């Protein structure tokens, strides 16, 4: 399996509780390398654009409000099979269903405030990385 990149967000519930390091350690211990990282306060327009695929879903408005409720840390992660590996390390969307040892099992507060975002395909990873990072900001 070739080295791959994926996109991650440490969400406001985690930055609020000062868990940026704890979450990043779980990603690194899981075999992923942080090759780009920055802390941002998302605008409403940025959050709506990022989650445009969910625009028709009932939780869209609340999700956007949550994502702009505090700082986030956007990251590019690199490693073997990085998209799938990151999803394993994150755990299920609803922390009640997440496996032991996953970021969401350990740290998430709810199905909405679930501490991390991770791309669900290589195609979406490329789109999401380009949404936040210029190529020269990624140093592998
Ligand atoms: N979400 C929510 N309510 C739901 C499902 C999802 O608030 O019933 C939020 C949650 O923060 C989730 C995000 O919307 O991480 C995107 O949902 P998706 O189904 O893509 O889950 P993910 O890929 O993040 O596991």
From TrEMBL:
Q: Enumerate the SUPFAM superfamilies for this protein.
A: Nucleoside diphosphate kinase, NDK (SSF54919)
UniProt-listed Enzyme Commission number(s) = 2.7.4.6
Q: Which GO terms describe its biological process?
A: CTP biosynthetic process; GTP biosynthetic process; UTP biosynthetic process
PROSITE patterns the record matches: NDPK_LIKE (PS51374)
Q: Where does ATP bind?
A: 11, 59, 87, 93, 104, 114
Q: Which GO terms describe its molecular function?
A: ATP binding; metal ion binding; nucleoside diphosphate kinase activity
Spell out the subcellular localization from the entry. Answer: Cytoplasm
Which coarse location class describes where this protein primarily resides? Answer: cytoplasm
The terms describing its cellular component in GO are:
cytoplasm
Catalytic residues (UniProt): 117 (pros-phosphohistidine intermediate)
Q: Which reaction does it catalyse?
A: a 2'-deoxyribonucleoside 5'-diphosphate + ATP = a 2'-deoxyribonucleoside 5'-triphosphate + ADP; a ribonucleoside 5'-diphosphate + ATP = a ribonucleoside 5'-triphosphate + ADP
Q: Which cofactor does it need?
A: Mg(2+)
Boundaries of every Nucleoside diphosphate kinase-like domain copy: 3-140
Q: Which Pfam families match?
A: NDK
- What is stated as this protein's family in its record? Belongs to the NDK family.
The protein depicted here goes by the name Nucleoside diphosphate kinase
- Organism of provenance: Alterirhizorhabdus solaris
């Amino acid at each position: 399996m070739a080295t791959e990149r994926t996109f991650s967000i440490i969400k406001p519930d985690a930055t609020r509780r000062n868990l940026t390091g704890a979450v990043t350690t779980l990603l690194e211990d899981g075999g992923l390398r942080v090759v780009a990282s920055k802390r941002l306060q998302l605008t409403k327009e940025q959050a709506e654009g990022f989650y445009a695929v969910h625009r028709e879903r009932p939780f869209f408005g609340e999700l956007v409000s949550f994502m702009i409720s505090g700082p986030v840390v956007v990251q590019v992660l690199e490693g073997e099979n990085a998209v799938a590996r990151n999803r394993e390390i994150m755990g299920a969307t609803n922390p009640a269903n997440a496996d032991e040892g996953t970021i969401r099992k350990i740290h998430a507060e709810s199905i909405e405030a679930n501490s991390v975002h991770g791309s669900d395909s290589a195609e979406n990873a490329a789109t999401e990385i380009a949404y936040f990072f210029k190529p020269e900001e990624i140093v592998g």
